[in-house]
Write a structure and sequence with these properties.
558 residues, alpha/beta, Rossmann fold, Domain 2, N(10)-formyltetrahydrofolate synthetase, Formyltetrahydrofolate synthetase, domain 3, 12-stranded mixed β-sheet, 4-stranded mixed β-sheet, 24 strands
Length: 558
């Protein structure tokens, strides 16, 4: 029996006009700014009009550390949203937009899979409504204005050795990580070292996802530190008078996008910072709007719970005044086997002992989530080759930790496959069990915040940071930035900074390579290990197999 591919399933979707999807959340058609027939932006006027509504229940979907076996976090987010609607709840999902980098690289798209997908799949994984292009343009406008200011006399006395604003591109391109600009003589400016990050790592992306409205957006853009003078005083975006034009470029991008699942349920798809190098959550505007118009909102945070969920709790919830009512941790039998030492090509064979060995990774994520005061349920994302004994081993392990693991078959069955999970989530959310609190207080010193995350979430023994980094953190505290939260840039594959260290390692250290102040977004980025803010393409990029087929349909997206 051959299974249809995700794109084949998506192509057969029976989509409703986007106005009909909006009606399910009482969003009138005049509040939708359509992009074709199946996607629309939700107007700022409508968002303002629902602010007095009570909030619905907020459910976070997170996962174990990703493995090459695949976990299906977005698929489970979509499946749970459909499941809640199927049992009669007014539910919406909130996910991030896809970056072109991983889409053409190795990770694929970000629209779910099987019969738990958001559509239009092709559009969502390609240019969608142009938000990422707008972010890239706004970011690079500021870059151009910095170099232009220096060229025309440098009235702000920018020290060109201390320009900290890099350029961005929404593509994996390792050749651009470190570059030299302005070569070619006097008319091209003053040569200097520079570099590119991927757009999802841009501070403009983080700001768009954390801003409450257009005014807040412009204020935060103005707060961006772009460079320093020789006396180390900072130069801000507003000093270059770039914040107004950047906001104008982002006027549409700041409005959330509404699309639908395969079962025609509403989905907000907005913003897309990666969780391994940025804060990994969709926009606050989308999440808070969804909470005002739906009784249940299912959202996800990127990669494993050590990254995405930690940042969701400590950055997004702190800044937006949100608190999750329940957390779902996605795991698969196959990933447990990989964590238990089984090679990818041997995953189809039953191996209960390997499942049991690999459960330590899941167990640590459960403990970590509970340390935030939030109840956690495990969703076992079912694969066809999973055996009953393997599933039972995961369930028994999770029960031993005082939690529960529910088998979910949404990939093959859609909402029918998540009804049990949906019913349990409703029970937990309605019980008011959650006593959410962030991991650290605002007034804790910055280095102690880093240590708190490293020790309590990663279970590291120590944080290794040389004097230069500690001095930099102290300078930022003296400049008034000591109350900011921490955004760790770390490999997604392990609790440690070593991507090959699976399971639940202890006794490791967290080496800090660099710290960056995102004054506009309002956090400190701490770069650890060998993590790159501009990824590279793999040996065989997915782009090699993306094409039109003879019927004029797109093939190769997944």
């Amino acid at each position: 029996m051959t299974h249809k591919t995700d794109i084949e399933i998506a192509r057969e979707a029976n989509k409703q006009p986007i106005q009909a999807v909006g009606e399910k959340l009482d969003i009138p058609s005049e509040a939708l700014l359509p992009y074709g027939h199946d996607k629309a932006k939700v107007s700022a006027d409508f968002i303002n009009s629902v602010q007095k509504n009570e909030n619905g229940k907020l459910i976070l979907v997170t996962a174990i550390n990703p493995t090459p076996a695949g976990e299906g976090k977005t698929t489970t987010t979509v499946g749970l949203g459909d499941g809640l609607n199927a049992i009669g709840k007014k539910a919406a999902i909130c996910i991030r937009e896809a970056s072109l980098g991983p889409c053409f690289g190795m990770k694929g798209g970000a629209a779910g899979g099987g019969y738990a997908q958001v559509v239009p799949m092709e559009d969502m994984n390609l240019h969608f409504t142009g938000d990422f292009h707008a972010i890239t343009s706004a970011h690079n406008l500021l870059s151009a204005m910095i170099d232009n200011h220096v060229y025309w006399g440098n009235a702000l006395q920018i020290d060109t050795r201390r320009i900290v604003w890099r350029r961005v591109l929404d593509m994996n391109d390792r050749a651009l990580r470190q570059i030299t600009t302005s070569l070619g003589g006097v008319t091209n400016g003053y040569p200097r070292e520079a570099g590119f990050d991927i757009t999802v790592a841009s501070e403009v992306m983080a700001i768009l996802c954390l801003a409450k409205d257009l005014n807040d957006l412009q204020n935060r853009l103005g707060d961006i530190i772009v460079a320093y003078r020789r006396d180390l005083t900072p130069i801000y975006c507003r000093d270059l008078k770039a914040d107004g034009a950047m906001t104008v470029l982002l006027k549409d991008a700041v409005q959330p996008n509404l699309v639908q699942t395969l079962e025609n349920n509403p989905a907000f798809v907005h913003g897309g910072p990666f969780a391994n190098i940025a804060h990994g959550c969709n926009s606050i505007v989308a999440t808070t709007t969804a909470l005002k118009v739906a009784d249940y909102v299912v959202t996800e945070a990127g990669f494993g719970a050590d990254l995405g969920a930690e940042k969701f709790m400590n950055i997004k919830c702190r800044k937006a005044g949100l608190a999750p009512d329940a957390v779902v941790i996605v795991a698969t039998v196959r990933a447990m086997k990989m964590n238990g030492g089984v090679a990818k090509e041997d995953l189809d064979a039953e191996d209960v002992a390997a499942v049991e060995r690999g459960c330590a990774n899941l167990g640590r994520h459960i403990e970590n989530i509970k340390s935030f005061g939030v109840p956690a349920v495990v969703a076992i994302n079912h694969f066809v080759k999973d055996t009953d004994a393997e599933v039972a081993a995961v369930q028994a392990y999770v029960e031993g930790l005082g939690s529960e693991a529910i088998l979910c078959k949404h990939w093959a069955q859609g909402s029918k496959g998540t009804e049990d999970l949906a019913k349990r989530i409703v029970e937990i959310a309605e019980s008011g069990e959650s006593e959410f609190a962030p991991l650290y207080s605002d007034d804790m010193p910055l280095f102690e915040k880093i240590e708190t995350i490293a020790q309590r979430i990663y279970r590291a023994d120590e944080v290794l940071a040389d004097q230069k980094i500690r001095d930099q953190l102290r300078q930022w505290e003296e400049a008034g930035y000591g109350n900011l939260p921490i955004c760790m840039a770390k490999t997604q594959y392990s609790f440690s900074t070593d991507p090959s260290l699976r399971g639940a390692p202890t006794g490791h250290s967290v080496p800090v390579r660099e710290v960056r102040l995102s004054a506009g977004a309002g956090f400190i980025v701490v770069i650890t290990g060998a993590i790159m803010t501009m990824p590279g393409l793999p040996r065989e990029p997915a782009a090699e197999v993306i094409r039109f087929n003879e019927a004029g349909e797109i093939e190769g997206l997944f």
